[in-house]
Amino acid sequence: MDELVGRRPGVVIAADASLVGKWERWPMPAGRRPSANVVVVMAEVYGCAVQDLLDFDDRQQMAPADLQLLQLGTSSPGEEPRPAPALPPEAVREPREADQVRGAADEAAAWAQWAESTNVGEIAMEELRANVRTLARDYLCRDPLEVFTRTRRLRNRVFGLLEGHQHPRQTTELYLQAGYLCCLQAWMASDLSPNADALESAETHARTSWLCAELVDDNELRAWIMSTRSKIAFWDGRMKDAIGFARRGAECRPSGTAEVLLWCQEADAWSRLGAAGEAQAALGRAEDARASLCGEDEVAGLLSCSDFRQANYSTAVHLRTGRASTALQEASGALARPAGHAYGTTAQMHITLACAQVAVGDPDGAKEALDPVLALPPGQRLATVAARMREFAAMVAGSPMADSRKAAELQSAVEEWALDSAPRRLALSPGTLSD
Question: Domain boundaries in the chain?
Answer without folding.
Answer: 3-115, 121-305, 325-435
